[in-house]
């Protein structure tokens, strides 16, 4: 019999996760799975449960929680030889990965997707010795995301990040950056560096519209230091989904990127605080198989 593990974070969303477990179990049983349910209690539980599922050759792992639970689940399978199929039931505020994969944000509809026989192999990014699924950012926008409170997220949803980002964009602080990729080098004062794998960041789907989940590329954007008037142009370009077309923005795709700075600069990885520079990014093409509509 095929084996499925449902990893549930009871605290996600409006603490509704447990209400959905029974229906998920029913659907998976109909699909011929024996189902095990693993409830998280604290940080890294989802990673450990998922690692167990890999070691025990489970066929499917379902993440029922927010982006935090999903990222932890993915981190648990990325390094394993046996990687189960992944089901995503988004219960978070933002749900970037689900958005990028066109998985419904309505919970009942997302659960229905588990009936699907379709799946999509998606890219994962290596980030030093861990992984990312959406974006790595360094610079002002990265700093801004820490300022977003849970209250703002709940009240304004994805808009909270944009509002907070806009505030910081007007302060125009830049950092010296060195970016090496595939034998090329960019060096200079930069306002923001973004490395995106998907088109959805903070629930906003226009920051990196060219990034596809399965194109085998890291889409990079360098916004160099500039004056406030030009900066206003950048904001407009972001809102229009045309950041890459701005004449001052340096855009490239890469398989590997090395980011260093003489300043002490912290990164933002999938919306959470990440390592301080230097960091190495590397694409792992078509690495995880996700159930889709
Ligand atoms: N039983 C639990 N009670 C409280 N916190 C938990 C529990 N289990 C896991 N956690 C914590 O919940 C966090 C993940 O929460 P979640 O999956 O809702 O993601 P999120 O990033 O907070 O979502 P979003 O910000 O999009 O709403 C992890 O940091 C984990 O440590």
Features of this protein?
lipid metabolism; 30% helix; binds adenosine-5'-triphosphate; phospholipid metabolism; 293 residues; globular; Rossmann fold; metal-binding; alpha+beta; phospholipid biosynthesis
Outline the fold blueprint.
Elements: E1 2-8, H1 17-30, E2 33-39, H2 45-55, E3 60-65, H3 67-77, E4 85-90, H4 96-100, H5 107-113, E5 119-127, E6 130-132, E7 135-139, H6 140-147, H7 150-156, H8 159-169, E8 175-181, E9 184-196, E10 218-224, H9 228-240, E11 250-254, E12 256-260, E13 266-269, E14 272-276, E15 279-291
Parallel strand pairs: 1-2, 1-3, 3-4
Antiparallel strand pairs: 5-6, 5-15, 7-9, 7-13, 8-9, 8-12, 9-10, 10-11, 12-15, 13-14
Residues 9-12, 40-43, 45, 65-69, 92-94 line the site of adenosine-5'-triphosphate.
Strand content: 25-35%
- H/E topology pattern: EHEHEHEHHEEEHHHEEEHEEEEE
Q: By helix and strand content, what is the structural category?
A: alpha+beta
CATH class of the largest domain: Mainly Beta
Distance from N terminus to C terminus (CA atoms, Å) equals 24 Å
Number of E strands: 15
Question: How large is the radius of gyration?
Answer: 19 Å
> Which fold name fills CATH's third level, the topology of the largest domain?
Tumour Suppressor Smad4
Largest sheet: 11 strands, antiparallel
Return the domain count.
Answer: 2
Helicity level: 25-40%
Using the 3D structure, state the CATH architecture of the largest domain: Sandwich
Judging from the principal axes of the Cα atoms, what is the shape? globular
InterPro entries: ATP-NAD_kinase_N (IPR017438), Diacylglycerol/lipid_kinase (IPR005218), Diacylglycerol_kinase_cat_dom (IPR001206), Lipid_Phosphate_FormReg (IPR050187), NAD/diacylglycerol_kinase_sf (IPR016064), YegS/DAGK_C (IPR045540)
GO molecular function: ATP binding; ATP-dependent diacylglycerol kinase activity; metal ion binding
GO cellular component, one term: plasma membrane
GO biological process, one term: phospholipid biosynthetic process
